[in-house]
Amino acid sequence: MAQISAENIGKRTKQEERRMMWRSVKANKACYLMLAPFMIFFIIFTVVPVVMSLPMGFTDFNMAQAPKFIGLSNYTTLFLSDKIFVKSIRVTIVFALFTGPISYILCFLLAWLINELHPKLKTVFTLIFYAPSMANVYTVWQLIFSGDMNGYVNSFLINLGLINSPVQWLTDGNYVLGVTIVVQLWISLGAGFLALRAGFQNIDRSMYEAGAIEGIKTRWQELIYIVIPSMGPQLMFAAVMQIVGSFTAGTVAQNLVGFPSTDYKAHTIMTHAFDYGWVRYEMGYASAICMILFVVMYALNKLISKVLSKYMD
Amino acid sequence: MAAAVNTAKLKASNKQAGRKVGGTVAIFIFLSLLGLFMLFPIYLTVVMSIKPVEEIFIFPPKLYAMRPTLDNFKDMFAVMHQNRVPFSRYVFNSIFVTVTVTVAQCIFASMAAFVLAKCRFPGNKFINGIIVVALLYQSNVIYIMQYIVMAKLHMIDTYWALILPSIASPMGLFLMRQSIGQVPDAMIEAAKVDGAGLFRICWQIVMPNQKPALMTLIIFAFQAAWNIQSGTVVFQEQYKTLTTVAAQAASAGLARAGVAMAVSVFTLVPPIVIFMLAQRQVIETMAHSGIKD
Question: What percentage of chain B carries pLDDT values higher than 90?
């Protein structure tokens, strides 16, 4: 008894804390049971591979021999002597700045405008805007932007008399990034867009009715005072999807303007990782690249969720 | 005064405030124009798929087929029929894999999302954090590690390799969690007072109100499962799916452009059908939603 000092009063011992925790775990048995089916598959096929891949960035790993620990040298090489990586950072930033915010705004704007229409038209328009992200149509875009006169864009411009000879859309360094951005925007009304559409459908009708009684007069007012405040979770979901989509894009460029693209003009960080991972089999180096990308995306995600939660409350 | 209240009520019964017909027409026109741009490449894909080969590379390129033909589709099926395994086997594989993945993913993700969004228990925050990290962590090394895990579990070259890794989708869980989070706590508390267990609350009270999100998840899950590329985890012909074999039929560069277009059209049809069915459900829910805070 004499040992009770002022600072120990009110503090639980570690043992007590553990017992409390255990009791609370037992009390919530049902929660864990309902989580279990998902978590089992999630741990085996996502968590374990991710954890296994984390240390790879610090190794030299060519898939044939066992990984060799080399400390931070992958990271120092990346920033100090890999000129193409530095270039790919710039390309990724330009690419993400164009595709990310634009397609995020488009997702929301279109989801909202569609919501203003008759129910039958809603389905049709939602399908029209979502269809590109379902389709696998690199071949058709290659034909559209084809560098000879058979390309649709070229033949259209030649017929109008705007150009005299075909433009090499897919190989001219001045155009490759622009073309990639257009195609990426075209397919980017995907998961985020559909989630926002679902969010609109889930807003309770009584909210609109209450709004009308309280003097809301226009669509804009309704959007700002009723819709946006009750769409926080969907806006967050769409934001995460846009971050992932715009920062990890690489397949579009690879399929469209070739790999590597002219002068590395459409060479994103993810393309760089692909280059080292699947072409040169330097998995350690590729992991380091992906790790840097992850850190950037995570920071951005934190930032956006802060901004959104501030706005929603 | 009474008249003002009456007009307010009348407006309210008209559902939404301040809808001018002109505005709606303007929206329709704007969406239609943008929609044409969005549809153009898909329209071209369909047109190319019914063009004979010699018509694909002419100048000036035509926006329609002069002599429409189903040859490209015939070629595609012919290539798929040449394999050792009967064509029906691929159809069965695709249906089996897609349905299993979609159903399991929706059930598991809904339950987990409900618990993560609405229950407080030790580890909740931690798991929520991990889900977001998993969404953002895109590394090309993961596939190798996943392969190693599957190999250790002796799953390579079985149906399991196609089905099990796709069941737990962090994106699906995240979508459902965001949506279920909007359900008022009072509703769940009321059900608890009435003595309903968590499982019943989830399926009989929360999920019937989550049709829009659930239907969206079905679209995502179906689309992802239908497009699973089986070539890297199964090597025996009898486990390959339709989309994989169709992609094989198309892979010969621009010379096979017509067939490639036919394949694109062919693989796009089932997801669109599911999309239409699911979206109809989504839009119907709007008519009588019943959540009250």
Answer: 22
Top pLDDT among A282 and B3 is at A282
Give the A:B interface size as CB pairs under 8 Å: 312
- Paired tokens of A116: 């203003």
Mean pLDDT of A240-266: 83
What the block records as the tokens of B271 is: 């997801």
Superfamily of domain B73-287: MetI-like (1.10.3720.10)
Sign of CA dihedral A185, A191, A197, A200: negative
Q: What is the four-CA torsion angle of A113, A118, A123, A127, rounded to 10 degrees? A: -40
ipTM: 0.85
DSSP state of A12: P
Q: What is the pLDDT of residues A93-138, one digit of tens each?
A: 999 998 899 999 999 999 999 988 888 888 899 999 999 888 877 7
Specify whether the CB–CB gap between A99 and B256 falls below 8 A: no
* Cα–chain center distance at B54: 36
CB contact under 8 A, B59 and A150: yes
Query: Domain-by-domain residue ranges, chain B?
Result: 37-68, 73-287
B24–A contact, CB cutoff 8 A: yes
Q: Over 50: is that where the pLDDT of B14 sits?
A: no
B255 and A CB contact within 8 Å: no
Q: How far is B237 from chain A (nearest CA, A)?
A: 23
The alpha helices in A116-203, defined as continuous H runs, are: 119-134, 138-144, 152-160, 176-187, 191-202
Asked if the Cβ–Cβ distance from B276 to A201 is below 8 Å, we say no
In chain A, which residues have their Cβ closer than 8 Å to the Cβ of B151?
Answer: none
DSSP A11: P
Cβ-nearest to B108 among A37, A213, A217: A37
Mind spelling out the 3-state secondary structure of chain B? CHHHHHHHHHHHHCCCCCCCHHHHHHHHHHHHHHHHHHHHHHHHHHHHHCCCHHHHCCCCCCCCCCCCCCHHHHHHHHHHHCCCCCHHHHHHHHHHHHHHHHHHHHHHHHHHHHHHHHCCCCCHHHHHHHHHHHHHCCCCHHHHHHHHHHHHCCCCCCHHHHHHHHHCCHHHHHHHHHHHCCCCHHHHHHHHHCCCCHHHHHHHHHHHHCHHHHHHHHHHHHHHHHCCCHHHCCCCHHHCCHHHHHHHHHCCHHHHHHHHHHHHHHHHHHHHHHHHHHHHHHHHHHHCCCCCC
**Pairwise CB contact (< 8 Å): B215 & A198:** yes
CB count within 10 Å of CB A260 equals 18
- Cα dihedral A11, A16, A18, A21 in deg (nearest 10): -80
Measured between CA atoms, how close is B83 to chain A, in angstroms? 24
The length of chain A in residues reads: 313
Helix (H) or strand (E) holding A216: none
For the stretch A175-232, pLDDT in tens is 888 888 988 899 888 889 999 998 888 887 777 888 888 888 888 888 888 888 888 8
Instruction: Please give the Cα distance from B202 to B10 (Å, whole number).
Output: 37
Coil, strand or helix: which one is A149?
A: coil
Average pLDDT over residues B12-20: 55
Handedness of CA A70, A74, A80, A82 (dihedral sign): positive
Class of domain A61-312: mainly alpha
